[in-house]
């Protein structure tokens, strides 16, 4: 309680300020007061939670799952094989420099308005942090420890599982935390570009109805999704790294 | 960026920013003609023309006073005003009948709205277009619930030719349709008004309540210049076209002269009513609002008088 | 004479671009010998171990383990590095068990095998502590235990007892000698404690100026088993003084 | 040369494949061949480089600069004061869970079509990695070293500059690398939502013109910007951390 | 008697939730004394230093430095920790210069002050190396040098020479004694080498079972300056044996 006191105070203050400013400038269609958003959220709760949340959640989870599988596999491959590293690492890095997401409108043309075009956008935006963090984490393991394992006759596999994986965990989880938050953004952007349901779509659509409170309401839900995913990652992280708590 | 300042000071130039409904094309020729010929200058107006990135930006930007005026769609103004109390009102019509069509590639073999059953229709993200499709399919004896609608943003033509949708609604008879033909695609299109949708004003000019209250002279001055521009455009469409072509956004939005020429021919008869350029009748406002209420686009009863004002003669 | 388990023949080595550390170096250690290496700080003792374990590659010459010049020397020695190098994410028990894991031993069996050793090493009660909760000497003992558990016939111990108090050290030394005899190991032992070298080893090698060509060698003239009191024997004291002189770089031993 | 051989080969192969597939499916307006993109790029080079590049670059650089200044200041403040940490850290983390970018359309209404709406989007997307990495980096400094500085009479300031800043550098640069790539994406997304010029805007515009090659051409330029920024960060990184090379 | 520079009065301490290490502990060290602390591994010697430096807070009792029970004991001692704790991003010179920097000394002046010391410590030539390029003993000497440069009157040295060979160690010991006399320092010195303790110190404290209440104390009966040969004196040898017995926990010294 005491720990989060200051944060709670600031949040309260910010909400109060928002309510106040919003009432003063009185343009609810672009800047609704939080109370208005809350009311609208309540009114829309069924549509939001039952119709739009599931499709956005599906995009986020599928996108994350694909990114994790692909990103971790690629990172492992690059750590295992120097040729793979030399071939792919520059590509992964420079692929990130290419704002592939700017090509998202074209993916939509390619993959259609179904879930896949949005999953592709989500994967594109989350793949990089997972791959690079996992790879850097695997590489970050102490050279001394790896050498020691070698002298004990450890195989590449042993070194991988007993030294590199534990050393990579903190990095992997950092990457996953970034990816989780980006996945929410990716799904929302994907939905802007063409969709039939989803929270991002709904929000955008309410823009066209000048219903400011209804623009914010799905964002609130998206935030809840983001926070929930983040907390899940945090719990997994602290469960799998008990020894860190000692510090 | 609001062009306020003290009202009507004829010496002082006042800034007016105007957001178009779309990229400059034939329908906007009158503006460019008036600008080119100095009609706006004569009225003491510095005109700054902007283009929107999203279909609803013009109303939003006008309502939040990011721009002085905007060109937009009549049904949108009704929704904004009656449902959300957005303080915008129409100050003149530009195109008096729907240009909006349901367009499909000829090869899709869609002969009437009924054939849309089981097909995918792309729209620009404005719910109005959903209602249009519903009304048309129903009127044609089909089941609107069997039509799948997807929001495709502004990407109407690319959606169509990449076959991501079988038809699109929101495409204009004077732009997308000739453009598709120009690119070599055979199309079929349906006129909304033939299938139960009332004839609404396709394009109108809006300003915020605030601007209208504080500085009606400015809007009137703008409109006088616009009318002069339109008169010239009507009298000499070729010259108007040349001026437009000279003012086009060459790199971002290059215009095909042929397409624009065709567009001009389609547009001219639709831009002037019996009472002249810009004059708004009550009937289309009332009819459109009634239809919108019927189809559930709006829940509240609109106050028609708040929706528009006519310029004094 | 027993057979040679470790042989350096004409081995040269330098850290890339730095001045050479070994130059045409020779060394032979026989089976079941206990050899101690002493020498000035920075003279290359740890480097010698890195070469034997295969962590560094000789630039010229050959290094033979158990009579063969194998491709990879990894996994053929029990190496205890100078720093303790415990894994911070593993408890004491888990850290010490690494070599057993590598050998594929079951967890339960490993715990059974280690528990008595932990007690002998004065580490009982710390089984489930993490390295950051241990004192310096405790960490060193865990690292020592781990190198023992590799089960190799050649043990390379780099200052294994430097952080231990005299008593703990003594009991570890006694334990080590006991194991060395019972299990027929060959031990190379780096220390800077001349007493320790004299107490433990058959031969003492002295690292002098780099680049090293061959080591000055001292055979310790004591019978086994040795007692601490024997260290105060005038002959030993004199040898000790001579060794120290030797380290100072003045005069030779024999 | 030899080092990047495999990567270069793969890139060549990918381009070849792209050219081939593109020619086979023959839908140049959504999937133009690289040769077509190159030709179009050459044709458009002046518009792209002189008209659109400067405005995008301005957004990116301004956005990054603001993120760095705000992010680093906040991180430092949070490290210095526990109250600030307790007040802001949860906020920074949870602000990231809120897909603020989904509110970007509203920023546009608020800030207009000028540069600021896009700068805000860029800041929103780059602020998080910089702040969190800097903060984590400052915190990651070895407790032992900090304690040692204390025993030597080091003040908070000494510990900060002599222990925490050097320890934070690798983290800060990782964050900056992520931020640089996100800034390009942020600018492009911002421009989709409302702009009068800029590479993202131009690309989107060309979508409506069926000019696939011209959709890709500005993305190529954006990528060059991304790569250039990334390389600058890398150079700064290796200049300021010479000791790391030894490993 | 000289005045007390360090006093523990009724000090109790335990690591949170663990069994207590000090219990109503008493200790007094006088000005310009050289005191050595020996004791079993894990008995709490390093912990004692952490308390003196103020890195840990006593749970009860008071610790007085130079006669005052100050609020914060930070910055009032020259502390050399058991691990070398060099900053990997600084060269040898830069690492050693930290305390001078903290005192606000100019870079050039600091280099001038340190260069002769580096030579005395056998570190010349390594000035611009990074810690990862040094041998274990070299790192330890850099850490030692750094603690000396704090200029405090109280030096706390935690096993400062454990990684040094006999010769280097001897020369460091001689250097330390010399400085101690010239600069009028008070030195607390942890070691596990009883010889070293006898050679260096005025008094030896023995840490026995935790929780510790007070330390067994041995006054070294040797005149200064001492020679290495004096260590082989039967009286000293006997005292050494008794100290070792003492450490074993059997019998008391006086
Ligand atoms: N950070 C810590 N948290 C918990 N327990 C600790 C911590 N540091 C030390 N201990 C425990 O406190 C006891 C004393 O440790 P300390 O480091 O003072 O021993 P020491 O006498 O210096 O031993 P050594 O000679 O091996 O260095 C040990 O049992 C150790 O496990
Ligand atoms: N990784 C390295 N890179 C470059 N030089 C190194 C490296 N490791 C050690 N050296 C250098 O090699 C020399 C020998 O080092 P080594 O660690 O073998 O000494 P040592 O005899 O073990 O000393 P100590 O008793 O102090 O541990 C030293 O001069 C050291 O600076
Ligand atoms: Mg060494
Ligand atoms: Mg200790």
Automatic annotation (TrEMBL), chains A, D:
Q: Which residues cross the membrane?
A: 57-80, 87-113, 119-138, 172-193, 213-236
Q: What are the protein's UniProt keywords?
A: Cell membrane, Membrane, Transmembrane, Transmembrane helix, Transport
Chief place where the protein resides:
membrane
Q: According to its UniProt record, where is this protein located?
A: Cell membrane
Residues annotated as domain ABC transmembrane type-1 = 53-233
Quote the Pfam families the UniProt record gives. Answer: BPD_transp_1 (PF00528)
How does this protein lie in the membrane? Answer: Multi-pass membrane protein
Q: Which InterPro entries match?
A: MetI-like, MetI-like_sf
The record's similarity note reads: Belongs to the binding-protein-dependent transport system permease family.
What is this protein's name?
ABC transporter permease
Q: Which organism is it from?
A: Domibacillus enclensis
TrEMBL record, chains C, E:
Q: Which reaction does it catalyse?
A: a quaternary ammonium(out) + ATP + H2O = a quaternary ammonium(in) + ADP + phosphate + H(+)
Q: Which Pfam families match?
A: ABC_tran
Name the EC number(s).
7.6.2.9
Cite the SUPFAM superfamilies for this sequence.
P-loop containing nucleoside triphosphate hydrolases
Domain ABC transporter as annotated: residue spans: 6-234
Listed A to Z, the keywords are: ATP-binding, Nucleotide-binding, Transport
GO terms, molecular function: ABC-type quaternary ammonium compound transporting activity; ATP binding; ATP hydrolysis activity
Task: Return the InterPro entries for the record.
Answer: AAA+_ATPase, ABC_transporter-like_ATP-bd, ABC_transporter-like_CS, ABC_transporter_ATP-bind, P-loop_NTPase
Record flagged with keyword Isomerase: no
Q: How does it assemble?
A: The complex is composed of two ATP-binding proteins (OpuCA), two transmembrane proteins (OpuCB and OpuCD) and a solute-binding protein (OpuCC).
Instruction: Name the chain's protein.
Output: Carnitine transport ATP-binding protein OpuCA
Query: What is the species of this protein?
Result: Domibacillus enclensis
Origin organism lineage: Bacteria, Bacillati, Bacillota, Bacilli, Bacillales
